[in-house]
Design a protein that fits this description.
The protein has 235 residues and is of the alpha+beta class. The protein has one domain: Inosine monophosphate cyclohydrolase-like (Glutamine Phosphoribosylpyrophosphate, subunit 1, domain 1). Helices cover 15% and strands 40% of the residues. The chain has five helices and 13 strands. The strands form three sheets. Strands 11-10-1-2-12-13 form a six-stranded antiparallel beta sheet, covered by helices on one side. A five-stranded antiparallel beta sheet has the order 5-6-7-8-9. The longest helix is centred in the last third of the chain and has 11 residues. The protein is globular, with a radius of gyration of 16 Å. The chain starts with a helix and ends with a strand. The mean pLDDT is 96.
């Protein structure tokens, strides 16, 4: 198991990242989602809560150039599950779930982002809640070594989450030009403390120049109630 803070800070540009796991006391399901940016357009964003969901918005609408890949709903909350992704595939997954279809079926209709030469991976997660417990899945859709015509789809299922442990997946392996995609399985990482400790650990570990926004949520497994935190670099 890797130290979450060390893993996040090991590169200046992990891109967008999802962390899902269980709190140290075993009583909470944990979500973390962050976005970063190198261009002015990517950095011109904030997270805004909308009911039980999360949206991205332009911080300065007058500077918004292309909203297609940066304005979306990263988090959607349904009756027995929570979806978190780095793009508009959040809504694809939601629509399939509402039709009694699966996370995997939804993502098999999608591919990586159309942003050559990076072909940014689509990363997604879903938490399923029932009987006072939960399980979760993660996925990454990426190009086959930068080939636009070839998509790779990976799915990972975690049926028995352990207290104090989570999994971390991010879009990029490291900074570069083009930026290399994430490789390997989601990383097993430590989940420490309450929501404020977890939020601070993630935010403070992200590169100061490139970080944009962070969302965290702790869901009580007994009651279904949750706490959330939002940090935006642009205030």
């Amino acid at each position: 198991m890797k130290d979450l803070k060390a893993e996040i800070s090991s590169t200046t540009y992990p891109g967008r990242g999802i962390i899902i796991g269980k709190s140290e006391d075993g009583k909470k399901a944990v979500i973390g989602y962050f976005i970063m940016g190198r261009s002015e357009n990517s950095r011109n964003r904030v997270f805004v809560a909308e009911g039980k969901d999360l949206k991205t918005q332009a911080f300065d609408p007058s500077k918004l150039v292309d909203p297609s890949l940066i304005i979306y709903a990263p988090v959607r909350t349904l009756e027995n599950c929570t979806i978190v992704t780095n793009g508009d595939q959040t809504d694809t997954i939601r629509d399939f779930i509402l039709e009694d279809k699966t996370f995997e079926e939804a993502l098999r209709t999608r591919t990586f982002e159309p942003d050559p030469p990076n072909f940014t991976p689509r990363i997604s997660g879903i938490l399923d809640f029932k009987d006072g417990g939960f399980s979760y899945k993660l996925s990454i859709l990426k190009s086959n070594c930068g080939r636009e015509e070839s998509a790779l789809r990976f799915f990972y299922e975690y049926a028995q989450p352990e207290a104090g442990e989570g999994h971390f997946i991010h879009t990029y392996k490291c900074d570069g030009n083009p930026i290399p995609s994430f490789e390997g399985e989601p990383e097993l990482v430590s989940i420490e403390g309450d929501i404020d400790t977890f939020t601070a650990n993630v935010w403070e570990s992200l590169n100061a120049d490139n970080k944009v926004s962070l969302y965290t949520r702790y869901t009580d497994l007994a009651t279904g109630e949750y706490e959330e935190r939002i940090i935006n670099k642009n205030n």
